[in-house]
Protein: 16S rRNA aminocarboxypropyltransferase
Organism: Methanolobus vulcani
Amino acid sequence: MIQADEKDIKLFLYHAKQCDPKKCTGKKMAKFGLVNLFEKIDRIPSRSILLDPMAEKALSPEDSAKKGITVLDCSWEEVERVFPQLLRMRLEHRALPYLVAANPVNFGRPFKLTSVEAFAAALYILGNKQQAEKIMSKFNWGHTFLELNHEPLEEYSEAKDSKDVLRIQSEYM
């Protein structure tokens, strides 16, 4: 078990039990005590940042993660089912900017991140680079994600706001 640092941002994962448990990065994170796993959508803490690819605003260093970061580990069908409930909850919906996956299933594909890659990207952008490295260290391909995306992650982490992140993103797409 990895010791949590007092500066660590709390990580939350809604897990719908729809993925292969052997390949599930969320389950592995929970095994190591790196994430709080929920199987009911209403357990997601209010005011946490929900990483939502459909969000109108991009995650940026101006966002506050005092209430934590939440990732949904489920199929698109499940997202469509729970989305009305998510909209009623008091969550800060934010989209991750352009990044490339390093996981073995989607290696090299933009926006096809695993749960741990999404968490690491968010942590990095919000300035918690050590926590991002810590969670990725549990995956033999984890360092590759941070290496592949080093330049954009650095630039996103230095952006002043969501608009600045979108401007930077446009340079990579």
Summary: The radius of gyration is 15 Å. Helices lie at 25-31, 76-88, 115-125, 129-136, 142-148, 150-157, 162-172.
